[in-house]
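User: Could you check the structure of this?
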Amino acid sequence: MFFRARNIAFAAAALCLAGAAAAAPITAAFTTFETLVGATFGGTGIPNNAVAITTVPGVIGGANALTLGLTAHQRFVGPALPSAAGIFSAQTGVSAISPSPADPYATWNFGFYIAGASTALYSFNLFYDFDPAAANDETTHGRVAIALGAITATAQNSWNLGMNFLDAGANQPSFASFDPNVAGQYTFALVAYNANGGEAARSAIVVNVNTVPEPTSLALVGLALAGLGFVGRRKA
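Assistant: Sure, the predicted structure tokens are below.
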């Protein structure tokens, strides 16, 4: 599988402060976890079949007034990330594709999607996590405000936690810079706020990042287990 996700050059210009972080850990949240038809996440070939989708129904004709989507996927090339119920599994490591490894990116990205007939009625925050510990409070997350100026608009893209603009500014995470070689749990939330600043809807996902033993390590483990079995038989 090959795809190309646009590095969001417009990010700095499109950011504005909207809403506030809630004092609670981010957990998986969605209306449905399935294919998000029409979503490209700003690239080509990015999987859209495992997306945490939250919809706000419209008043006229039953059309959705707002659709939020979040997903995680391999960066540029690789198999789809295993996922279920808004929880994804990824591996540690630094991407070999430019601008990484000079500017270290993870081997996986997270993608967001906002669309609907009434997007202008809402403001949006995308929360992201640098702390590999589990169940981090939302207030410790980084925050990007996404502005949509049209009555009906769509915003979507695929980002990597190694992107420099996520590690700069007043709304960056309270944890140290992201390290793609560190295993842990990373959480993301895309939140819509109404005109009064209250939360109207959210989509949220969890990405569990784990290391995989090298083949030589697996061989050593196998030998160790075999040795233990031999000792056990001798003692018996």
